[in-house]
């Protein structure tokens, strides 16, 4: 009897001990293995890219959004790619490779790598508040809009250059041809072979010549030279307070007005050339855009429009002409004339 009672008591004591141990374990769980350093970087990158897009969406204006738009996405992509490489190496060393705790940071890296290469037009603080200045087309005769308009389908320039969010790139076209009669039907062509080369550039509106550049040689526009400014020869007109009109890729030595002079709408300023660098329009053309600073590459774009012109046979009272290139490489932008 006594031995049985002792055994029963022992079993009860063991049950109470096991229960107490279970309660202690529940109250004080085993610490989880700390997250790997690359996972913490993945979370930080994901949050940083989210803040970048939120910051740009606020359209604060100034120089910092320009730098963030130009360099922030590329920096985020490169950092995410580097972290992913280290994550794959570290996970291969610290097996097992597939672990649940690694899933979320890998998803964060995948999202950063998937989103940051996506090109979108610069969200200017002037969007929705177009210039009140009246503009005319900067050339006489009929021209084809290579790039222009409100979105990146009709204006690829908007996806790559902040200041060219509402830029207009014009090429000369006659009877479906952009090169002169007598030029080789298949190329290669010299700048002088194009109809646009040497055409007169007119002031789209009245303004003051703030500064200009006229000494750069005309050459093949798709040949990049780090010593040559991308916009080539140009004229910058101050057309209103805080509004500066750029007319770029002008012919060397063709400038007709000195810096500081006052010009009127329709006045001859220079000639279309083939100076500077442009991979998106690899032929002589006139590029024009409006921004809020007189310096190259530091201004925010300002929406604008042109008045009283023909698009094909249709008269347009006020609009921003649109461009575009079809799947076969054929220009599908508007044919416009003043």
Structure description:
By secondary structure, the protein is an alpha+beta fold. Helices cover 28% and strands 19% of the residues. It has five helices and twelve strands. The chain has a ten-stranded antiparallel sheet with strand order 7-4-5-6-9-2-1-12-10-11, with no helix packed on it. Strands 3-8 form a two-stranded antiparallel ribbon. Helix 3 packs antiparallel against helix 4. The radius of gyration is 31 Å and the shape is elongated. The model has no long low-confidence stretch (mean pLDDT 90).
Distance between the termini: 118 Å
Structural class: alpha+beta
Shape designation:
elongated
Give a count of the beta strands, DSSP E runs of length 2 or more.
12
Low-confidence stretches: none
H/E element sequence: HHHHEHEEEEEEEEEEE
How many helices? The count is 5
Descriptors for this entry?
alpha+beta, elongated, 10-stranded antiparallel β-sheet, 12 strands, 28% helix, 19% strand, single chain, two-stranded antiparallel sheet, 5 helices, 338 residues
Topology record:
Layout: H1 2-27, H2 37-57, H3 63-93, H4 103-115, E1 142-147, H5 157-160, E2 168-172, E3 200-202, E4 207-213, E5 233-240, E6 243-250, E7 262-263, E8 268-271, E9 286-291, E10 306-311, E11 314-319, E12 335-337
Helix pairs in contact: 2-3, 2-4, 3-4
């Amino acid at each position: 009897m006594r031995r049985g009672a002792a055994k029963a008591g022992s079993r009860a004591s063991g049950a109470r001990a096991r229960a107490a141990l279970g309660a202690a374990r529940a109250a004080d769980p085993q610490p989880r293995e700390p997250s790997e350093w690359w996972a913490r970087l993945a979370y930080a990158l994901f949050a940083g890219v989210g803040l970048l897009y939120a910051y740009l969406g606020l359209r604060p204006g100034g120089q910092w959004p320009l730098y963030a738009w130009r360099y922030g996405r590329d920096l985020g992509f490169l950092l995410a790619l580097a972290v992913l490489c280290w994550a794959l190496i570290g996970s291969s060393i610290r097996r097992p490779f597939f672990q649940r705790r690694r899933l979320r940071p890998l998803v964060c890296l995948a999202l950063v790598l998937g989103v940051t290469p996506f090109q979108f037009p610069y969200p200017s603080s002037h969007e929705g508040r177009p210039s009140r200045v009246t503009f005319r087309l900067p050339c006489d005769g009929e021209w084809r809009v290579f790039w222009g308009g409100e979105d990146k389908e009709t204006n690829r320039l908007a996806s790559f250059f902040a200041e060219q969010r509402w830029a207009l790139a014009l090429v000369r076209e006659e009877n479906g041809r952009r090169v002169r009669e007598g030029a080789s039907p298949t190329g290669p062509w010299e700048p002088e072979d194009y109809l646009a080369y040497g055409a007169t550039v007119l002031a789209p509106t009245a303004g003051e010549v703030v500064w200009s550049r006229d000494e750069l040689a005309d050459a093949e526009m798709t040949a990049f030279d780090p010593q040559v400014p991308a916009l080539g020869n140009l004229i910058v007109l101050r057309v209103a307070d805080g509004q500066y009109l750029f007319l770029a890729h002008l012919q060397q030595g063709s400038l007709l007005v000195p810096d500081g002079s006052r010009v009127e709408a329709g006045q001859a300023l220079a000639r279309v050339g083939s100076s500077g660098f442009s991979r998106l329009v690899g032929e002589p053309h006139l590029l024009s855009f409006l921004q809020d600073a007189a310096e190259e590459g530091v201004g925010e774009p300002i929406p604008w429009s042109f008045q009283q012109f023909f698009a094909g046979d249709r008269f347009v009272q006020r609009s921003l002409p649109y461009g575009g290139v079809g799947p076969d490489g054929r220009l599908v932008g508007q044919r416009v004339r003043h």
